[in-house]
Amino acid sequence: xxxxxxxxxxxxxxxxxxxxxxxxxxxxxxxxxxxxxxxxxxxxxxxxxxxxxxxxxxxxxxxxxxxxxxxxxxxxxxxxxxxxxxxxxxxxxxxxxxxxxxxxxxxxxxxxxxxxxxxxxxxxxxxxxxxxxxxxxxxxxxxxxxxxxxxxxxxxxxxxxxxxxxxxxxxxxxxxxxxxxxxxxxxxxxxxxxxxxxxxxxxxxxxxxxxxxxxxxxxxxxxxxxxxxxxxxxxxxxxxxxxxxxxxxxxxxxxxxxxxxxxxxx
Length: 266
Prior knowledge:
By secondary structure, this protein is mostly helical. It folds into two domains: 2-217, no CATH class; 222-259, no CATH class. Helix content is 39%, strand content 2%. The chain contains nine helices and two strands, in the order E-H-E-H-H-H-H-H-H-H-H. Helix 4 (95-104) crosses helix 7 (186-202), helix 5 (135-153) packs across helix 7 and helix 6 (164-176) packs across helix 7 (186-202). The chain is globular and about 60 Å long. It starts with a strand and ends in a 7-residue tail after the last helix. The relative contact order is 0.15.
């Protein structure tokens, strides 16, 4: 069956597998099965946050990126997961802060990556990451070299000064390898940025992204549901509150207090 697909439905799938820079107007797909979480959370639990305003003032403290790098990443992630009339995009959701924190920590240093070589950039994907750079180095080099290419090809302008369709052209060129970077394969930089963008949009808010749990609200995910493991024997109780972060202290007891009175185990 060929039908139009909404951004919300796309991200239900893309939250695990990633999203494309350019989404066709219509795709061929079988209708996805209804998720349990979505079926049990009332619509009021998934109300979209207010429209984004004043993004530059909402960045918060950065630990890795400088101002120019932050402007590049913020603009790029907003094109990868853009805002629509109903939901804010990746910039409002704080994906920049998520990536910044990751790069300033063990992930950025490649703590769990084998980086000693040999490095074979043309190796098949099954052989995994094939660069000598840590993720932090990959970002720093990739951003600098992409900015240089943009300035050379677009009249000295920075990436974030371009209009949305032109930014999409740049990102598509990185994805396909049509834009070549001097020090590393452009598709590897793009794929890393894309993966981290999706992670930041859907990760628990304690890691810096998914502001107000916008990603979870969009797809109907209840959040840190494992906190309620001792409620598994209480039946026919709809999940009637917004998503819960692992940083929400007291959330579990509040839920218990509001739902255990008068309930019976089956």
